[in-house]
Backbone:
DNA sequence: TTCGCTGCAAAGCTTTTGCAGTGGT
DNA sequence: ACCACTGCAAAAGCTTTGCAGCGAA
């Protein structure tokens, strides 16, 4: 709820209009941990079928510009989005078989990153750090060669 | 050259046919550090215009299955491919303004990764670690807001 | 000779865009 | 009352696929 109100204010401060469509897209985005653009379209249209696919994409782009939403490519299926606003920084560990995503924090890695960029004279702006593996459950039911994209799922229902 | 011969053998061992198209795609892929599928298509067809776009995509998919080629998404333009076969493992540092890509190694990060997955009972299969920032040159010519995709470039000419 | 691979063109998916009408401020 | 935003449908990437013919083994 706090995040919702905060982002609404961000939109207003941006000087763009706070429309019903944008509010709805924001509310539905906040209801998921990780989601694809298409999942968000479906979710939004389940609530209000009159909202156009294009409006969802445009609202998502706006949220991305505002720094509220991050885009992830887990290389298994379509890109994923995540509302990172108001959440502590974290990276991701994903099961390549069932699609489970775990968010982790590791300050020691962050420190090493700073060291690495310094080595090349770079100014660090952002980073992505993704670990892929098998979750405990999938290690047991392990198929020798499941080369293909597992479903990317979504769980949390409120924000 | 050693890599070329090695991969040819990989293809034969796979029990699939070693066609002229596959050999050409492999040679041109080896000639670049990082490339998009479309860049590879252009490059291949510059050498032999009779090769179909679809054949390049199919050959690239084969090389990916063989573990010879890796796919990267730098979030600036189309996904990038890289022939990693025969190269030491490394991760990437990219300038978001000019598109320069630096490959770095940091064993200490690798060690922390092993520790992280153990924490969650995962079995680590692979990872991606990408740092985004401004290279020394672009820090000087810095535009306040260059939100858009820089050209992804390609340099090396032989392999 | 066989059947896996290719070229071609068409289709598929996801995302973007042009435009006329609508609604926030 | 403006003009930014929306819905719609068409277009625009990028990648995959069906199919008939070709050519590596």
Residues:
């Amino acid at each position: 709820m706090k995040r919702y109100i905060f982002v609404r204010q961000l939109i207003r401060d941006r000087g763009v209009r706070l429309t019903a469509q944008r509010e709805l897209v924001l509310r539905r985005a906040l209801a998921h941990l990780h989601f694809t653009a298409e999942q968000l379209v479906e979710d939004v249209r389940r609530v209000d079928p009159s909202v156009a696919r294009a409006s969802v994409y445009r609202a998502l782009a706006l949220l991305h510009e505002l720094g509220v939403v991050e885009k992830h490519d887990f290389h298994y299926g379509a890109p994923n989005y995540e509302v990172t606003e108001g959440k502590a920084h974290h990276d991701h560990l994903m099961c390549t078989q069932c699609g489970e995503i775990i968010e982790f924090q590791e300050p020691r890695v962050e420190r090493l990153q700073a060291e690495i960029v310094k080595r090349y004279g770079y100014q660090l702006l952002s980073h992505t750090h993704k670990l892929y593996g098998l979750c405990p459950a999938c290690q047991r039911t392990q198929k020798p060669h499941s080369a293909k994209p597992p479903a990317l799922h979504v769980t949390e229902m409120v924000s």
Summary: The radius of gyration of chain B is 18 Å. The helical segments of chain B are 2-13, 20-30, 37-47, 53-65, 107-119, 136-140.
